[in-house]
Amino acid sequence: MIQYAAILLMVLGLYGLLTNRNVIKMIISLNVLEIGLNIFIISIGFSYDGIAPIITSTYNSSALIFVDPLPQALVLTAIVIGVGTTALGLAIAKNIYSKYHTFNLDEVEEN
Amino acid sequence: MKNLLAFLLTIGLGVLIIFSLSSNTLFPAFGSVDVSDRVSNSYIDKNVLDPANTETIIFGETTDPESGAANIVTSIVVDYRSFDTLGEVTVLFISALGVALLLGSAPKQKRLALNFKPNFMLRVGSRALFGIILMTGVYVTLHGHLTPGGGFPGGAMIASSILLLYLADDQFRAKIKGFKTLESIAGSLYVILGLLGLVVGTYFLQNFLPNGTVGDLLSSGIIPIVYILIGLKVGSEISGVIDNFLTEEETI
């Protein structure tokens, strides 16, 4: 069921990306899309009996049932790259604002 | 009209994704994943190089396994796929470089003024919290191979402590040159550590140090060293990005 929620977030982010012309709102939509995608990738590896993939003193053997660690490792990469793209996007938005005094791309084209 | 078109397009995409996955025998139902017949099983049993070895890993007992980290995600991120992580760190470096080029090109920079005057309690309280957040970040970085966390979240915590000082103190300005030096040294040491694996062992980023006992703080070879370097690099990089956003060109 949570996979439907993740797909809904993805679709919502894509819709926001297609309809908004405000740079800040576009960056927020991109982040919503990314979070939906990350939740979806994590959910692929989930199992109800599984525990977190860390061998600790309580769950001390690799013979126990874990959730899939590979999607989590991939999402760790995706989150960091998301932070990088968001920072770069916000820097470009700040430059647009200091030059045109607006965040709206339609008003930028008129100037 | 444009909004309606976008709405129909995205609804179509969502329905396409849901229908193509719901009747697919290759895509498992939510929660009924069997990890034992996936590739990930060899990461959990730590027998990627030697699939015939089916020995169970016991916390605190098994010595010198293939990859010594008790946190299996860490053993994937920094050991089996360490080259991938090197590329990821490079992406973060390039984006921090882009932010610095776009925002910090002016020679004279001054920090943005707060629109309130921080009182005594705010300044002292933020200094006290700064130490706690910094130490938590260092702890999470150091224990990346034993507990959840690691270099990336630890570095983000270190950067958030710098952000707290920026927001709570109107006189504070980070020494950005020091961050830049720390970042380049940590990044270079990561590559040098990888090349050292090529010299001592057989391939780039090989884990050439002894793995030790699973669960010890000083275990799993180069994994803690790499994660400390990543933590320093990510922390100083994001602090630099924060400094770039919170300073502006000095207008005289």
Structure description:
The complex is a heterodimer of chains A (111) and B (252). Chain A has a single domain, classed as Helix Hairpins (Orthogonal Bundle), CATH 1.10.287.3510. Helix content of chain A is 70%, strand content 0%. Chain A is built from 4 helices and no strands. Chain A starts with a helix and ends with a helix. Chain B is mainly alpha-helical and 252 residues long. Chain B has one domain. Chain B is built from 8 helices and 2 strands. Chain B has a two-stranded antiparallel sheet with strand order 1-2. In chain B, helix 3 packs across helix 4 (82-103). The longest helix of chain B is centred in the last third of the chain and has 25 residues, at 176-200. Chain B is globular, with a radius of gyration of 23 Å. The N and C termini of chain B lie far apart (49 Å). The interface between A and B is large, with 54 and 62 residues.
What is the CA-based Rg of chain B, rounded? 23 Å
Q: What about the largest sheet of chain B?
A: 2 strands, antiparallel
Question: pLDDT average of chain B, as an integer?
Answer: 88
Instruction: Return the string of H and E elements of chain A.
Output: HHHH
Mean pLDDT of chain A: 90
Task: State the major sheet of chain A.
Answer: none
Radius of gyration of chain A: 19 Å
H/I helix tally of chain B = 8
Uncertain parts of chain B: none
List the topology elements.
The complex is a heterodimer of chains A (111) and B (252).
Chain A: H1 2-19, H2 23-44, H3 69-100, H4 105-110
Helix pairs in contact in A: 1-2, 2-3
Chain B: H1 2-22, H2 40-45, H3 72-80, H4 82-103, E1 109-111, H5 120-142, H6 151-168, H7 176-200, H8 223-246, E2 247-249
Antiparallel strand pairs in B: 1-2
Helix pairs in contact in B: 3-4, 4-8, 5-6, 6-8, 7-8
